[in-house]
Amino acid sequence: MAAALSGCAARTPPPEPRGLPFVGVLTSDNDHWCTASVVDSPRRNLIATAAHCVYFHKEDEKDGYEAGPFKGDLRFAPQFSGAAPGHYPYGTWKVTGIHVHTLWTKENDDRGDYAFLTVAPDKKGRRLQDVVGAAAPDWSSSPHRRVTVVGYPNEDHNPRNRPVSCTTRTRRDPDEPYMVRIECPGFWPGTSGGPWLADHRDAARPGRLMGVLSGGDTDRESVAVLFDRRARALYERAARG
After folding, report:
1. Which of 15, 20, 120, 150 is the most exposed place for a label (fewest CB within 10 A)?
2. Angle CA(121)–CA(241)–CA(136) in degrees, nearest 5?
3. Which helix (H) or strand (E) holds 35?
4. pLDDT (average), residues 31-53
5. Distance from C-alpha of 196 to C-alpha of 34, rounded to nearest angstrom
6. How many other β-carbons are positioned within 10 Å of the β-carbon of residue 229?
């Protein structure tokens, strides 16, 4: 799986990440390993994350992952925080469908390193987006934007499971031009799948989701695939259920 890394000071003070209830972690058997966020959808039941968080290839088997989509009781925990076993202010929401682009499933191509997941209503029959809110997707963003990125580092770097946040400017990655890049500290493994929110202000004005954190070659950078027409087609398929 790709590691989410980066480094460098933010240009503006980041928002209080605990004020973003639509951002949380993917969890199974009391373990969490990636970040995800709620994306606005007609059925109000969709989250976005990185494809490498939920769909594995043969080479991932050495790390204990069975090739193919995640198998097991996968759940989304919005606004999770706190030392183990942690706090779940909005409970956990069962993932019912995993939608990944064939660029990732067939070709293991980083250009498809994003995924949309459907979740079931909670025990009260409520839909996820109605409870925690969502960010609207942006399918045609410029690679040069003011962006807020939020993610949950794994416990070895983050024993209290607090999300990290950085607000800065994006630029096109010079090595992989289909990626956009930021430089910010603290985005260790676990932050993969975290939302890149263009023009974010606060929980009530979340901005637009232009991509999700894919990884980084060093501990001083993070990259994301810029959402485009292919991402939109995948989203629309997931939104139809």
Report:
1. 120
2. 75
3. strand 31-38
4. 97
5. 14
6. 9
Cis amide prior to 85 (ω within 30 degrees): yes
**Is residue 107 in some structural domain?**
yes
CA-nearest of 147, 154, 143, 91 to 121 is 91
Q: Is 2 domain-assigned?
A: no
pLDDT in tens, 151-182: 999 998 899 999 999 999 999 999 899 999 99
Tokens of 231: 């991402």
The total domain count for the chain is 1
Residue whose tokens read 């954190």: 213
> What is the domain-level CATH number for residue 204?
2.40.10.10
From CA 10, how far away is CA 30, in angstroms rounded? 32
Q: Which domain holds residue 172?
A: 17-239
φ, ψ at 136 (rounded to 5°) = -75, 145
Distance CA 180, CA 166 (A): 15
Kindly report, residue by residue over 75-130, the tens digit of the pLDDT: 999 999 999 889 999 999 999 999 999 999 999 999 999 999 999 999 999 999 99
Yes or no: say if 5 and 154 are a contact pair by the CB < 8 Å rule. Answer: no
Amino acid at 14: P
Phi/psi of residue 157, nearest 5 degrees: -105, -5
